[in-house]
Amino acid sequence: KMRIAVLTSGGDSAGMNSAVRTIVKAGILKGCETYVVREGYEGLVRGNSTPAPATPAPARSTEAEHLADDAFVHNLRFGDGELLRHGEGDASDDPDGHTLKGRYIIRVGWDDVRGWLAEGGTLIGTARSAAFRTPEGRLSAALNMVKEGIDALCVCGGDGSLTGADVFRAEWSSLIKQLLEKGSITKEQFDHHQHLKIVGLVGSIDNDMSMTDLTIGALTALHRICEAIDNINSTAISHSRAFVIEVMGRHCGWLALMAGISGGADFVFIPERPPMADPWEDEMCEVIQGHRAVGKRKTIVIVAEGAHDASMKPIAVDYVKSVLSERLGLDTRVTTLGHTQRGGKPCAFDRILPMLQGVEAVDALLEATPETPSYMIGIQENKITRIPLLEAVKQTHAIAKAVEAKDYEKAMSLRDPEFAE
Ligand code: F6P
After folding, report:
1. How far apart (Å, rounded) are the C-alpha atoms in residues 272 and 253?
2. Cα separation of 226 and 161, whole Å?
3. Which residues bind substrate (predicted)?
């Protein structure tokens, strides 16, 4: 049986729980043993310092019994999803010793992921692991995977997390060789773990990954921003005010741009295309004055948090506010939406997309050979796709570089080849 582990990494995004649930359920249905790694790569680095409880927690589901191998389902070590929700307790909290303390790579079954579809964030925890960025950290992660007998890893995260996955796979042979030489693993374990099977699902509210149309969580965040703009609109209209709204998106203006279009904003600042006019303040004031002149009672300016001007100076919301109040005499307020954009229930499509992609991810792992590349599971023109992880990561970095070099045309055509035609 293939042992598949799934982890979520980087900033959480709505729909990550649906991804984990799908990997677990599809994995079980396809005859695999399934594990979750708590706290992202950090959990992989830490591994399990306390043993699994001797008595398995009872499985509750009868549904699972119909769908999966009975013997397997009844043999769950952590049959109760509440354990995951309750986080770490002491062993004394549970007479059977079902505690997560000191355990990061946890065997899970059908029941553990029950009810996860509609939950926001990621119930298995996430982190931006500094340790995994070091060679020692990755060596420890490799050792923990071998110790737990994990053959395949599914990583759900953004650009940074998938870059980490790519590095891990590239180093794998050298890592397990080092472990064998140090005597940390046996020759048998070394032979069994020759190849790391790894697959990426893109979970990020920023929609900042190349070669896929949509990342898990981006649509929910967009809905959240739209609702916020709708709410602001009514109070702005009442007072005939202007609002400068800061939205997330460190390097990527997708959220800002889409929110601007769907919320009827007057002016939007995004990192990929800074205002071309010099000074941009004149252009912004002209546009807004034009809208006011035809009777608009409210003004909405959206600023992506990573937006900057043509000289790479950050566009500060308070500065935009001062321009609107001082130059146009508008009564202006600033609203920073912050983490309200990221949390909360996933919208319907952020439940469906990870489901479709999760099934594809399990298939990709089961079909992986030493010759096949590691895949990132994407969606392009409404079709679930497998894209070599290496290529997607490379292209994402090429876009960031083009933006840094102010070659916005190149950045756009890398993101969307049709743009170049
Ligand atoms: O990458 C997702 C994201 O939400 C970005 O849009 C934002 O810049 C960042 O994470 C915020 O990170 P943190 O939650 O660590 O402050």
Report:
1. 7
2. 28
3. 204-206, 241, 248-250, 305, 333, 339-342
**Six token digits for residue 293:** 């002149």
CB-based contact 210:252 (threshold 8 Å): no
Dist CA 78 CA 113 (whole Å) = 11
**CA separation for the pair 17, 235 (Å, rounded):** 35
Distance from Cα 11 to the centre of ligand 1, integer Å: 6
With beta carbons less than 8 A apart as the criterion, state whether 19 and 156 touch.
Answer: yes
CA atoms within 13 A on the CB side of 321: 14
Residue-averaged pLDDT of the chain: 89
**Rounded Cα gap, residues 377 and 356, in angstroms:** 10
> Residue 268 C-alpha to ligand 1 middle, in angstroms?
19
- For residue range 137-165, list pLDDT tens digits in order: 999 999 999 999 999 999 999 989 999 99
- Residue 113 carries which DSSP code? G
Q: Is 266 a catalytic residue?
A: no
Catalytic residue among 12, 206, 208, 350: 206
Cβ(288)–Cβ(254) below 8 Å: no
Q: Enter the DSSP assignment of 195.
A: S
Q: Please tell me the residue having the least CA distance from ligand 1 atom 13.
A: 11
Q: Which two tokens stand for residue 316?
A: 């500060």
Indicate the angle between helix axes 349-367 and 16-29, nearest 10 degrees.
40
3-state secondary structure of 133: helix
**Sequence-ordered list of residues with C-beta below 8 angstroms from that of 186, at least 6 positions apart, any chain:** none
DSSP bridge partners of 336: 246
> In this model, does residue 86 exceed pLDDT 90?
no
- Are 244 and 335 contacting, i.e. CB atoms less than 8 angstroms apart? yes
Q: How many CB atoms lie within 10 A of CB 131?
A: 16
Q: Mark 359-395 as b/e (b = at least 16 C-beta within 10 Å).
A: bbbbbbbbebeeeebbbbbbbeeeebbbbebbebbeb
Tell me if 304 sits within 8 A of 271, measured CB to CB. yes
> What angle, 0 to 180 degrees and rounded to 10, lies between the N-to-C axes of helices 317-328 and 280-293?
60
Nearest residue CA, atom 10 of ligand 1?
11
Report helix angle 218-239 to 349-367, nearest 10. Answer: 160
Beta bridge partner(s), residue 198: 153
